[in-house]
Every structure is written in C-alpha cells, then in structure tokens.
C-alpha cells in the first residue's frame, strides 16, 4: 500500500518536472528517460539487488516477450503524457488517469475474473457517461483514452509477470534502450540534440531516470501484491494532483462544459471509493 501511494504521488507531481524541460522535444525527453532509467537500474542492481533475476529470464523467452509488450505500453504512455504537458493539455491527460482506475476494474473483471459489485457497475457507467459527455463536446478525447488504456493494460500485464519489480523494469528499459540511444545519436549527428547545449537541461534530463524508475518500481511492487481493483483505487491520487497543477499552476482553461465531464468522473470515483470502503469493513 505504501509503495502504491508513493508511486502515484510522484506521478502526480511529475508535470512540474516535465514543464521545466518543456524546451526539449517530447521524443528526446522520452529517449532520455529510457537511457537514464537503464543506467540508474543497472547501478541499483549492481550495488544492491544483484543480477540473478536476469539469469533466470534467459530460460523464459515468453516472459521476455511479455516484458517487451509492457515496455511498448509504457513508452507510448510516456510519450503522449510528456507531449500533452508541452502542448498545455495536462487537463485532458489528467482525465485519462481519472478514468484509469475504472479501466483497471473492467480489466480485472475481464481477464482476472474479479467480480464487479453493483456499485462498481454504477461507477463504471458514470465514468462512461463522463467520457461520452466529453466526446459530445469536443470529439473523442484521444489523449485521455490512450493514457487510460495503455496504463491499464500495463498494470494488468505486470501483475501477471512473475519477475521482481527492479529486474522487470530493467529488462523493459534494456529492450527499448537501443532505439532510444539510436535516436539520440541521430539527433546529435543532425545537430539538434538538446543535451549538451545548456547547463539547465544537462542537469535536469538525467533526473528523468530516477523520476521514471523509482515510481515504476514502486508501482510494480504494489501491483503484484494488491488486488487490481485496489491499485485502481489508489491511482486517482496522481490525476488529482495533475488536475490541481493544470488549473492552479499552469492556468489551463477550465470551463463549465469540462466541469460537467469531470464531475461525472469524480462522482463515479466517489461511488467506487464508497464501495471499496464498505467491502473492506470486517464482517461482524
């Protein structure tokens, strides 16, 4: 539980960091996230946890394939999230992460056999109404839906992956590191690489490794030990912080039409939370 809370708090505050590196193109930011995460995790494994988990993975090609799929999901999720912040669309990104807990509930029902209680069904219905309202207003909120689905499936697959958090994340970054390194080398050859051209970005970009690896490891720990529905319950801490930053710090426009869509999602989460609390009470 503590690991999950810490992970979502870090993700909730992360837009402040990505806004600070907004001068760097999103693709380059994501490439740096991959490279610095790989280096940070390699140091962590070498100094603390060891590489025994990697040796065991060599005999499990299907597990490596599963981690390649989760790496693809996180890479796409990172890219769209960073782009949304640079494009002043954090509000829509936060909507996606508000929807995600209920996506997790649905995925738990469809793939893990977790039953939906009546109030959970009501919560999912209200969330769908909130999404449909947004579609009626501005068309398909593709940023929100993409973020919700990719992270929802990431949580589902990581829950099914029998590998410890640090080793699994290290393998994910190793899989994508060649692409990230190749992209950065290509930018360097073209003379458009941001890194190395200013102390501000040179100091900030390596932090992306820690900011990426630490919450993902904490999330993997929580996802493996908690029911998927509980992970979904914890998750809306991050979009709440994202929403407050978007409105109060970044001053993104927020009108009455947007408020109605968000209110439907918030009511859905309130219903879902009430159901979780009721289900968690000891029976007398």
Automatic annotation (TrEMBL):
InterPro entries for this protein: EamA_dom, EmrE-like, RarD
GO cellular component, one term: plasma membrane
Gene that this polypeptide is encoded by: rarD
Domain EamA: 2-132, 143-272
Coiled coil ranges: none
Organism: Pseudothauera nasutitermitis
Protein name: EamA family transporter RarD
Its membrane topology: Multi-pass membrane protein
Swiss-Prot/TrEMBL keywords: Cell membrane, Membrane, Transmembrane, Transmembrane helix, Transport
